[in-house]
Design brief:
It is built from 7 helices and 8 strands. By secondary structure, it is of the alpha+beta class. It folds into 2 domains: 2-80, Alpha-Beta Plaits, CATH 3.30.70; 86-165, Alpha-Beta Plaits, CATH 3.30.70. 32% of the residues are buried.
Length: 179
């Protein structure tokens, strides 16, 4: 089945540099093909059958062994990805300005209590809602100067997160449908 695989914090500044073409080739050689990438920021579509967590760990191992990088991978099936898109509570915001609508994909599920603690402990202009191993977030002033950082979110929720804007979310959906 087709899946979206997101790599956390690659090709940001000078850290965790990895070229997408060799990465796609390595994953395809190890049974995840066909592999396609979008942009340089770790947005992939792969083929994988079975449980996502085992495939996440395998892709992480392939990256570590092949490129010397310790990178978290978040994998969702095409059906799960479409489900996240359909569950977006901020559809109007996504349509009006998709660059300010963000999907945060979580490494593991978090409790409603942890999420509410994060939301109640933050007084900025951003809006956020909890999804299925995901956060839906609107950054009205953009992410660049926001105090609602991925580090703050990870600390509050106790799991890793990788964030994509709504343009990328939709592009990845299209890529899973194209095969």
């Amino acid at each position: 089945m087709r899946c979206v695989a997101l790599l956390r914090a690659v090709n940001v500044g000078s850290a965790n540099q990895i070229a997408m073409k060799p990465l796609c080739a390595r994953l395809a050689e190890h049974g995840f093909g066909p592999v396609t990438s979008h942009l340089r920021s770790g947005n992939l579509t792969v083929s994988a059958d079975g449980g996502a967590s085992a495939h996440e760990a395998e892709i992480e191992r392939l990256i570590r062994d092949g490129f010397g990088l310790d990178v978290a991978v978040m994998l969702r099936t095409a059906a799960e990805w479409r489900g996240l898109i359909g569950a977006n509570p901020f559809r109007r915001e996504a349509a009006a300005d998709p660059a300010k609508m963000q999907l945060g994909v979580l490494k593991s599920a978090v409790s409603r209590e942890a999420f509410e603690t994060l939301r109640e402990g933050y007084a900025g202009p951003e809006r956020l809602e909890l999804g299925d191993r995901a956060l839906f977030m609107v950054y009205p002033d953009g992410m660049g100067r926001s105090k609602l950082t991925t580090r703050r979110i990870e600390t509050a929720l106790g799991t890793e997160i990788t964030v994509r804007n709504w343009n990328t979310v939709e592009k990845l959906r299209q890529m899973t449908e194209a095969g």
